[in-house]
Amino acid sequence: MRPAPRVLLASCAELPCSNADDTDLPEVLAELGVPAAWAPWDDPAAPFDSAELVVLRSTWDYPLRRKDFLAWCESVPALVNPARVARWNTDKTYLADLAARGVPVVPTELVAPGEPLRCPDFEFVLKPSVGASSRGAARFAVGERDAAAAHLAALHAADHTVLVQPYQRAVDREGETALVFVGGGYSHAFVKGAMLPDPAAPGPGPGDRFGVEPDAALRRAAEDAVDAAAAIHGLRRSELLYARVDLVRREDGSPLLLELELTEPSLGFRQADPGAKPRFASAVRAALAG
């Protein structure tokens, strides 16, 4: 008979054991003597209230039910990352908080429901402040005012606050660089292809991912973002079980934060070195020890 899981890895009903990137985490944790299992976050039969630790992982349906999801987070006694972090991080308006602390963030204007769009005089992106991947995001050229206004209206009709951001064309050439931190320390990095690519661009496409060794400028920007997030919530960095910092570059090569993922990011284990999953398992074990 298998021992009762000490750790539950929270997933969603559509992918109850997550995806191939981290499906085997229970086996990796078992190697360290930590019984673990997957369970969809909204499964009423799952013993989330009695688990020693509940790890937010692939809860990828939360944008459709964010209120319910956050209520569930707050009901879980031992959740990582913590519920207050999930509440903050599942609405991209958090970018304003990071920018206020000096983190170099992609310039972002917030347009609340009912507010008009001031169309920029440069290529730009509209995206909902609550959403996963590129769902609801669209890219517009300077002359596409009517199309942008229609997209804004559709997002507002769904009660979304909308982010307006200049499109960073360097993404078409080199993609986004995602730096992953585990237990407060840097673990690995990978490149993701542009989600809204220029079809004529020679860079990686939306489904492309590959491991990379980030340069010092990207490492510094990522460290600054994780430090700022921890400080906002009165946490030590080690109290953030994981963080994924998605960076892009300006045309001059300097890094900008696109997103800081602290709730349910894919951690790119398939693109990482073989030690990445054991590092994650060690961080989970350390969190159990308190």
UniProtKB/TrEMBL annotation:
Keyword ATP-binding set for record: yes
SUPFAM superfamilies from the UniProt entry: Glutathione synthetase ATP-binding domain-like
UniProt domain ATP-grasp: residue ranges: 95-289
Keywords: ATP-binding, Nucleotide-binding
Domain of life of the organism encoding this protein: Bacteria
Gene3D superfamilies listed in its UniProt record: ATP-grasp fold, A domain, ATP-grasp fold, B domain
Protein name, UniProt field: ATP-grasp domain-containing protein
Organism, scientific name: Saccharopolyspora gregorii
